[in-house]
Design brief:
The chain has helices spanning 18-21, 38-47, 52-59, 113-123, 130-161, 168-201, 209-274, 290-311, and strands at residues 2-9, 12-16, 28-34, 66-69, 74-80, 93-100, 103-108. The protein has 317 residues and is α+β, with helices and mostly antiparallel strands. The chain has a seven-stranded mixed beta sheet, sandwiched between helices. Strand 4 (66-69) and strand 5 form a beta hairpin. Helix 2 packs antiparallel against helix 3 (52-59) and helix 6 runs antiparallel to helix 7 (209-274). It is rod-shaped and about 115 Å long. The model has no long low-confidence stretch (mean pLDDT 82).
Length: 317
């Protein structure tokens, strides 16, 4: 089990060990654990004396963003970006937070980029109570996701401007990637918005009005990103349909060219095959000018067929 802690007295933060955090009786304490093993569960249960339902929520393997209020405190689950490898269906890592008056315990299975931002805010003295810490996490996660969502929108804009039959396969790969990523992010941002909104409305004096306003602002930002991701997904679907049409048109054009070539060579193949038979009785087969005559007929048929197709504008379809 690995982790760290901070004790904040009168706005002055001091880094402490996880074990020392239990001995603090005054001020505000934040304990952060990075663990997935039974040791973390034992510490939460035996050392921190947390209720069993809280321990199970903090160490659960599969989670979704949610917020639950209890008499002793509040449980909050948020999702944010990480640089560690994740499953293709799970694009965001979770942070589980248990907040009570004077103490916050957070647990992650994968390192969140937002955790570094929150720790820096603690070091700068911007965090003095549980409400400040939750606000810092909510703000850091949404601020970290915002440019990523904006980049997905820029990718879709580039695809719309670059629609071309010659780049169908390249653009299809890009659109598919953007679509899958937007769906993966939106899957968590909608419940995350609901969780933050619920947190902002929880009763209790450990969360002051300013903290509630900041959490509500983070919820509004998450809602805006979810709406933008839905718009990106819809635009990606429309572009994908357009690329499918362009691909079908490209295939039709190539098939038409092949069909024209086959139709031109069909009579030529018949004539050459007929005079290529090793039998007697073929007209003019023994005349010295028969080869030149057959070649001339083949050329005339080819030219006639090409002129016919050009007049019918087949080459423009």
């Amino acid at each position: 089990m690995s982790g760290f802690g901070y004790r904040i007295d009168e706005g002055k933060p001091r880094r402490i060990t996880v074990a020392d955090a239990l001995d603090c009786s005054a001020g505000f304490v934040w304990v952060h654990l990075s663990a997935t093993n039974a040791e973390a569960a034992a510490w939460l249960r035996d050392q921190a004396k947390l209720p069993e339902y809280v321990v199970e929520s903090l160490i659960a393997q599969e989670t979704r963003p949610r917020c639950d209020g209890y008499d002793a405190g509040a449980y909050l689950n948020l999702r944010g970006r990480t640089e560690e490898d994740l499953d293709s269906s799970d694009l965001l890592a979770s942070v589980r937070i248990w907040a009570t008056r004077g103490r916050v315990i957070s647990v992650t299975r994968k390192h969140l980029l937002a955790t570094d931002t929150v720790e820096e805010s603690v070091k700068q003295g911007s965090v003095t109570d549980p409400g400040d810490l939750i606000t810092a996490y909510a703000t850091a996660i949404t601020a970290d996701l915002d440019p990523v969502v904006a980049a997905l929108g820029d990718d879709i804009d580039d695809c719309e401007q670059a629609l071309d039959a010659d780049r169908v396969y390249e653009l299809r790969r890009l659109v598919t990637r953007v679509r899958i990523t937007s769906i993966g992010y939106r899957r968590f941002l909608n419940p995350q918005r609901a969780a933050l909104e619920k947190m902002a409305q929880l009763p209790g004096d450990w969360l002051d009005g300013d903290d509630r306003a900041h959490v509500a602002a983070a919820a509004d930002r998450a809602a805006r990103m979810a709406e933008e991701l839905e718009a990106i997904r819809e635009r990606a679907s429309l572009i994908h349909e357009t690329l499918t049409d362009l691909r079908a048109e490209l295939i039709d054009t190539r098939s038409l060219i092949i069909a024209i070539a086959a139709m031109i060579f069909l009579p030529l193949t018949f004539i050459t095959g007929l005079y290529g038979m090793n039998v007697d009785g073929l007209p003019y087969a023994h005349e010295p000018w028969s080869f030149d005559a057959i070649m001339a007929v083949c050329v005339l048929i080819s030219v006639g067929a090409i002129v016919y197709f050009m007049r019918k504008q087949w080459f423009r379809r």
